[in-house]
Amino acid sequence: MRRYIRKFTKLESVLLIIIGVLLVGIFVEKKSFAEQGGESPESGELSILKEIYVNLQTLGYGSDDGNNGAIWNRIISSANWVPNGTVTPDKVISGYTFYNGDRGEKVGTYNVPDYKAQSYQKVDGGIVSPAEWTKTNASPEVWKDKRTGLYWSPRQGSMTNSFTTVSCSFFSATSRGNYNGAESACGNAINACSALELDANSDGSIETDWYLPSQGELLQAYLDGMYLATNSSWVTTDAFWSSTENQFSNTYAWISTFNQGYSNYAGKSTNNYVRCVRSD
What we know:
This protein is of the alpha+beta class. The chain contains eight helices and eleven strands. It has a four-stranded antiparallel beta sheet with strand order 5-6-7-11, covered by helices on one side. Helix 2 crosses helix 3 (70-80).
């Protein structure tokens, strides 16, 4: 039996070639996920690298300048960029992260001074308005000044305050509540607060970051109405030691009262009362 083989006409052959070329083109376009090097044209909207390029361009990373085409130039320059700033952890606010030359994540350690007392103080007609005070522990009695955020301990007794600022670690601690020592150079009053273990807010946890307040903190408590807004018998009319040295003589430190706002300096070897503070 004779087998019949049909031959394609010239027109049919041309059509098959065109269809084949179109199919290959579609396949190549679908698979074109990268741009070639050099000055070759971009690979089109479906290119993953084109997507990366647009993202980098939007973020302002890298540059189009170079000999490898805009897309590769920007990707290469972005990848090669290395942070070269001079900032160090002690210059960055504590808890904030940044990156150094090896692209390693660093955490800031700088503690910003707390100026809340100044920003929260309200003045009405030239008279400082009392702050809101809250008793945060009933026994022993602890009060919190909501304006400054300071917790105030009960009176800790009468003692001397013979500290030496240049050698006592309390004065280099950040914050002051981080001092937890018993150095002889810090004296009895500072060390009494350092050793204090007291639950400040009745949560069942003992706080140990108490410290001897500065003259400014003592006077701010008076301005915030501590004597009348809390418990006058708890506050007492006694003079209390501060951790602030007299600016004219290192043998004296400042004392203050909470009932009259009286402030004066006293010899460090004399006895005055101590009240400790801490903040959250």
